[in-house]
Amino acid sequence: MALKNINPTTTNAWKKLTNHFNEAQNLNIKELCKDVNRKEDFSIYFDDLLVDFSKNRITKETLDLLVELANEVDLKDAIEKQFLGEKINVTEGREVLHTALRSSSDEPILIDGKDIKPKIQTALRKIRSFSNKVISGKWKGYTGKQITDIVNIGIGGSDLGPDMVVESLQYYKNRLTTHFVSNIDGDHVSEIIKRLDPETTLFVIVSKTFTTQETITNAETIKNWFLKSATIFDIPKHFVAVSTNLEAVDNFGIDKANVFPMWNWVGGRFSLWSAVGLSISLSVGFDNFKALLEGAEEMDLHFKNEDFNKNIPVVLALLSIWYNNFYLAETEAVLPYSQYLKKLPDYLQQAIMESNGKGIDRNGEKVDYQTGTIVWGSTGTNMQHAFMQLVHQGTKLIPADFIGYKESLYGLTDHHKKLMANYYAQMDALAFGKTKEEVHLELKFSGNEAKINQLLPFKVFEGNRPSNKILFDKLTPKSLGKLISLYEHKIFTQGILWNIYSYDQFGVELGKELAKKLLNS
Ligand SMILES: O=P(O)(O)OC[C@H]1O[C@](O)(CO)[C@@H](O)[C@@H]1O
Predict the structure, then answer these.
(1) Atom 14 (ligand 1): residue with closest C-alpha?
(2) 15: CA distance to ligand 1 center in Å?
């Protein structure tokens, strides 16, 4: 059964939200936060994670109406269909089953009458055994030396996810050095090659289609470089592939035993949980890779089973819709207070914008409301010294997710105290601002009385700028899995509510075609 096809703007809830917005747009976060129960009422605790969304321009009525909207478009039914493996990626005629990759239940998931779980388990065993061999040094290069370097060759979903996770889990890394080559820009691959020894490097070519221009060009360049010192008989010791296109992999010269599976029921940008994550397992070990999957599964179960008003991905999706569709905010920022997460915004840009950057609804009609948000961000505190001026005092409304960790990994408590003081201070500054009266007093007592009239307007902070606090105990493989899964389900929820198809990406094709034509002309 297909997904329901409901234009959200025709629902009763949308009409109520529109009326409610007329009053609610004057809501003031500072006033709202005077309610001593607000924090508790607008917080969700889930194991090692707290999501506090009290600093938003919402009341209980807003949340109720947003939940009503989710119910009216039958989000529950869509969630069930996704987890059951119905072909909800209608435009590509595919299931959307990245959740199956991390499912530990024995419940079968059938595609065309066949359970896919055994295939997933076999792939995981292969990832484990291969990672163990390479990490332990049992796997040898063509001159008998151990592998020291891993190069992931891929782009988009075949690069951003593994690259972001390896960067984020640096603390858990083993002796191997991991590199990522993605850009067709030859300077990228050249810079990486410069650092490599062909005798001790393992190349992981990741491409679902194995036709992507960037990946195949980079892989060919690397193979030619490798063959300057080795022979084609040495390729099996140094090249492995992750793909659905076994024929193309074979044509490239990769040994059948060195091919890891990919499946059409997993979208590229949701594939880091599959063998696409091989470089993750190689970099941090299979146990940590498994823990990442476990964290993601915990969030899957929360998303699947929790009531919408206490459901973290659903609530964050609804808040984003509130700002995107009613306040007409165009962008949202993702601001992790951890240098480890510096690649998260890049990763989320593909996940969110390739999924929900759609202007045609599930009827094939042009939508007459806003869909996918523009996502951007960087790490705190660096970004405080870069773009936060605009977020605090600029003319645009930019809802922001502040991601933080109670504990640091190296235990430098002095640093962490300062980091977290900034984390909380930014959210308070955005929400509560600084009034004319406060600025006035400040200037008076700082000996700048003469300049009060001149400086006052520039020093006022309007405040009333929304943020979500997403706070984990500690950055671990498991908590990272939870965080990524959280955003995946937020994407799904928004796609359902906007009545669009989130799992195709036809918008990237035209540019590819034109580039090919130009090359051949
Ligand atoms: O894994 P492949 O087939 O090389 O594709 C790479 C990327 O290209 C896209 O198809 C389009 O950019 C992405 O969705 C995908 O992640």
Answers:
(1) 268
(2) 38
Catalytic residue numbers, as ranges: 354, 385, 512
CB proximity list for 411: less than 8 A, separation 6 or greater = none
pTM of the model: 0.97
- Residue 473 and residue 409 in contact, taking contact as beta carbons nearer than 8 Å: no
269 lines ligand 1 (CB under 6 A): yes
Pick out the chain residues at pLDDT < 70: 1
Pocket test of ligand 1: the residue of 164, 244, 508, 512 to mutate, having most ligand atoms within 8 Å of its CB, is: 508
242 found inside a domain: yes
Looking at residue 150, its pLDDT comes to 98
d(CA 430, CA 456): 18
pLDDT value at residue 448? 79
C-beta 244 within 6 A of ligand 1: no
Total domains in the chain come to: 2
Identify which of 111, 131, 134, 137 has the alpha carbon closest to the alpha carbon of residue 277: 131
CA of 205 to the centre of ligand 1 (A): 13
**160-186 tens-digit pLDDT:** 999 999 999 999 999 999 999 999 999
Whole-number Å distance, alpha carbon 261 to ligand 1 midpoint, is 16
Whole-number Å distance between alpha carbons of 79 and 412: 42
Asked if the structure places residue 299 within a domain, the reply is no
CA of 351 to the centre of ligand 1 (A): 11
Q: What 3-state class would DSSP assign to 203?
A: strand
Range of the domain at 257: 111-288
Nearest CA to ligand 1 atom 4: 207
Which ligand 1 atom sits nearest the alpha carbon of residue 243?
1
Cα of 72 from ligand 1 centre, angstroms: 34
Secondary structure class of 467 (helix, strand, coil): strand
18 and 77 belong to one structural domain: yes
Please count the CA atoms within 13 angstroms of the CA of 462 that sit on its side-chain side: 14
Last residue of a domain, one of 245, 261, 288: 288
For residue 2, the model assigns a pLDDT of 83
Q: Is the CB of 216 under 6 A from ligand 1?
A: no
Q: What is the 3-state secondary structure (H, E, C) of 24-50?
A: HCCCCHHHHCCCCCHHHHCEEEECCEE
pLDDT at 451: 87
Q: What is the pLDDT of residue 450?
A: 81
Determine the 3-state secondary structure of 9 from DSSP.
helix
Q: ipTM of this model?
A: 0.96
Which residues lie closer than 8 Å to 51 by C-beta, 6 or more apart? Answer: 43, 44, 312, 315, 316, 468, 469, 470, 471
Nearest CA owner, ligand 1 atom 2 = 207
Q: Could you say which DSSP state residue 501 is in?
A: -
